[in-house]
Amino acid sequence: MPELPEVETIARTLAPDAVGRDIQRVEVLDPSALHPDPATFQALATGRRIESVGRRAKLLLLTLAPRDGASTEDNAEDSGAILAVHLRMTGRVFVLAPGMETDRTRAVLHLSGGMRLAFADLRRFGSMHAFTAGQGAGSIGTWPFYANLGPEPLSMNAAEFRNRLGLGRTRIKALLLDQSVIAGIGNIYADEALFRAGVRPDTPANHIPPKKRDALFAAIQAVLTQAIAENGSSIRDYRDAHGDAGAFQNHFRAYGREGKACLACGEIMRVMRVAGRTSTFCPQCQPAPR
DNA sequence: ATTTGTCCCTGCGGGC
DNA sequence: TGCCCGCAGGGACAAA
Asked: Is A8 part of any domain?
């Protein structure tokens, strides 16, 4: 399940191969994968050079340059384009070696130099979105999901995090999963951070004192930083742009450990449902809020 | 106003 | 052995 560290790893492993190449053709295998529609996607992407590969929240972002020969006449307004890939649960982005094919491929970007970039997705929840890079209609800033994204957890500070949790009694895990509150955290890293900070997933935010908020923020940063260093977590589907697995799944202390002994105290790990997600926690280390 | 449920989709594992 | 069901979960959306 690609969350922030997985998408970051994909961006890092993809960039050296993709940056500087031209998108010569967009091969559409599953029209429903391309937004706003396949024709618009092809029109926005084809003939542009990939300037950079990055990440925002759980989105992989390809920044595309204005087209070569864009004259002051007809293409004066061409300020480039942006491709945003959301992998959701089972999406993958691969650099395809010559002759190599992938399963469940939904679209292929044919790049200069014979390189191919494949977007594959078993469960077809993922999607690719094309935007103009300007401020006008069609630009990524007008995409509500993107426009409403909260700050990056690795770029914010503890004070901002404390404030973002607010004064309400919304349960803390729901806030961590809310992309408009803080961007890029999913079920795995929410559980891992809450465990490390000793905060139960259903604790109302207004029951978490400032010091505990700071501890939680530190845990979030530590978990995400270590996960990036380990190239993400590979449970089943996730691979980087070269097909290699990550290793952070070997460091899980909470996620997927229901019924097992807590690594800190030996208590049996339990699950509860918060915000519609299975949440694994230690009843001892993460005591119920009073 | 927050929060829960349903849907999207496919594979897999548990239960019987 | 084999079928059925629930679960996995990010986000949009509807509903309580």
From this structure: yes
